[in-house]
TrEMBL record, chain A:
InterPro entries hit by this protein: FAD/NAD-bd_sf, FAD/NAD-binding_dom, Metab_Enz_Cyan_OpOx_G3PDH
Keywords from the named record: Oxidoreductase
GO molecular function: oxidoreductase activity
Occurrences of domain FAD/NAD(P)-binding (ranges): 2-337
UniProt cross-references to Pfam families, sorted A to Z: Pyr_redox_2
Native organism: Salinicoccus halodurans
Domain of life: Bacteria
Lineage: Bacteria, Bacillati, Bacillota, Bacilli, Bacillales
Protein name as catalogued: Sarcosine oxidase subunit alpha
TrEMBL record, chain B:
Stored SUPFAM superfamilies: 2Fe-2S ferredoxin-like
Domain of life assignment: Bacteria
Keyword Oxidoreductase among UniProt keywords: yes
GO MF, any single term: oxidoreductase activity
Originating organism: Salinicoccus sediminis
Protein name: Sarcosine oxidase subunit alpha
One Pfam family from the record: Fer2_4
Keyword line: Oxidoreductase
Amino acid sequence: MFDTIIIGAGPAGLSAAKILQESQKVLVLDEYFHAGGRLLGQLYEEEKGRWWNGLEIARRLIMETEGKSEIRLSTSVYNVELDDIYTVYTTAGVFKSRSLIIATGAREKSTPLPGWDLPGVMTVGAAQVLTNFSRVKPGNKGVIIGINPLSMVIAMELGYTDIEVAKICLPPKNKINDQTPKDAFETLVSLGNSAPSKFISFGTRVAGRVKPLHPAALKLFPKGGVKAMGLPISIKEKIIRINGTEKVESVTMQKTDSKGRPVGRKREIQCDFVCISDGLAPLSEIGSLLDLRHVYSEPLGGYVPLHSEMMETELPDLYVAGNVTGIENAKVAMYQGQLAAHRILGDEEAAICTLASINNERKNAKVKFHKDLIHGRETVEAMWKDLGKENV
Amino acid sequence: MTERILNHKILGAIRHEFVPFKWNGETIYGVEGESLTAALLANGIRTLRTHEKDGKPRGLYCNIGHCSECRVTIGGEKNQRACLTPVKEGMSVKQQTELPHLVKGDDSHV
C-alpha cells in the first residue's frame, strides 16, 4: 500500500515524487525503460548561450528521487479502479494507494498520407529520441511534413548533428488535415514573436516590408520557401506522397498558391527518412478508465480530463499534472507536478506560490504550443467552477 | 545506411561499450541498455517486421511505445515493442512475418 502512486516518470511525475517522498511512501510507474519521459530528447537554446538540455534535467530529477521514491520502469498500466482506495493494475503486478496522480503526458498526432507506412517514416518525436537520446541518426537526409512549434524545434536539433533536412513543408489536404499556407504562416510568425534567440527571424524579415499578418505578407512568401536558421521552410509546398519499395527513397512534392491550391508540376525529392508531425495530444486513457468527464479544447491539444487549476479532478484524491492537462512545455509540467504534490500534502501556501509560477511561465514561455493556450486554460477552469455550482 | 552520433555539437562526445546479440540468428552489436530500435537502426536495419496481412515491410514509427509498429519476437516471446526494450548481451530478436491465411492456409510463414 502506497500513499501516492504516480503514473508517468516524466517532468511532471518526477517533480511530484520529489516533494511527496519527503513524507510519503511513493510509487512512480512508467512504461519506458528510462525515467525522464520526453525530457530525454529535448535540446534547444532558450537565450543566447543558455541551453535547455532535457537530458541533464531528467538526470537531476532521477538523482533526486532515486531510492526515496520507488520507481518502476518498463511497467505498463492497463487498468485503474477506485473503491475507497486506488487499485492500479500493471504488467508488474497490482498496486494500491490512497492518492493517484495521472502524469501520462502526450502522444504525437499524425496526418496519414500515401506511403506513410514505409520503414523510414516516423514521427518527429521518434527522430528526436533517436538523435538526442540514443545518438543514432534517423537517416542522412530527411523531409519533415508538418509546420508547428514541435517540428521546427526538432528540425533544428537534427541540424546540430549534421543530419540534412531537405524540406519542411505542409501535408496534403484531406479530411483530417486542412492546414493552409496562411495557418502555417501564422504559426511561423507567432514563433517569431516569442523567438528563442534566433528562432524564425525570417518572420520579421518579411515583416520588414509589410506587417506580418497583412495578406500581402503571405503572397510575398517565396514559392520555393525560405532558409531560416538553416531550415528550408516552405509553406507553399505540400508533400503528397512518400515513395519507396522496401524503405523510404523519395517524396513527391507539389507547389501550391497561397490558398493551398496546386500550381505547376510535381517534383521528387530524394531522402532516406521522413518525419510526420501534426502536433501533440494529451494522453488521457487512464482518466477514461476512471470515467472522468473530459473536455475538448483545441488550444490544449484535444480531450483533457476536467480539472481545476489546482490539478484536482472530479474524483477524491485524484490529480492530473503535465501534458495530460494540455500541451505546454516541460517547465510548466514540472510546476504542475509540484502543485499536485502540494495539494496532496495540504500545503496551501506552497500550492498558491507554485500556481503563480505556472502562470508566470505560461505568460513568458519562449515556445508557445498554441496561440490561444491561455484562453483554453481559462475555459477549462470556468467549466470546473460551473461543476462546483452544480454540486452545491 | 545510418550511423551513430559520437560527437554532438552541443551534447559533446560519447563512448560506447558494444555487446553482441542476435537478429534473425545473425550476430550483430548494440550498446547495452539502448533501445532495440536504435541498435537495429545503427546496424542499418529498418524493417522490423512484415505486415501480418499483406507482408509489406514496417519499421519503427513513434519510438516511444504508443504505436506498436515495431513489434518483434524476443527470446521466443511475440509482439514485444522493440522501442521499449533495452539491448541485453546475447538476447535473441526475430522479425515477425505475414500470418498464414485462415482459409487458404500457408505454412511457409509459420
